[in-house]
Design a protein that fits this description.
This protein is of the alpha+beta class. The protein contains six helices and three strands, in the order αααβααβαβ. A three-stranded antiparallel β-sheet has the order 2-1-3, with helices on one face. The chain is elongated.
Length: 125
């Protein structure tokens, strides 16, 4: 029987996180490997002089300016952070300030996009 890669990928796509975790553990046990060891490439390179560069996984969302639509920016900050009206207004008035700290890249990008759409200037650090 030939291996059907498309069917395998479809099955993976429909699995929950818990099912994927169990699958990874089963593969680790069956083949005597570790997913963690495979994910970290060996630091080497030009004569061993080059150090491996770690990819940043946590980002801060920084509000650098409120812009002309301050009310819209306050609403966006409340939506992103869950702060009350006064706290969100104080954060916007005190720009530049961190809106979110140590968040995943996708979450940080979404927050920056929402702030920019509201009329603010924001960045990821």
């Amino acid at each position: 029987m030939a291996f059907d890669k498309d069917a395998f990928l479809t099955a993976l796509d429909s699995m929950s996180v818990m099912e994927l975790n169990e699958l990874v553990k089963a593969i680790e046990e069956k083949f005597g490997v570790s997913a963690a060891a495979m994910a970290a490439p060996a630091a080497g390179g030009a004569g061993g002089a080059a150090a491996a560069v770690e990819e940043k996984t946590e980002f801060n969302v920084v509000l650098t300016g409120a812009g002309a639509n301050k009310v819209g920016v306050i609403k966006a900050v409340r939506e992103i952070t869950g702060l009350g009206l006064k706290e969100a207004k104080d954060l916007v008035d005190g720009a530049p300030k961190n809106v979110k700290e140590a968040v995943a890249k996708a979450d940080a990008e979404a927050a920056v996009k929402k702030l920019v759409e509201a009329g603010a200037t924001a960045e990821m650090k």
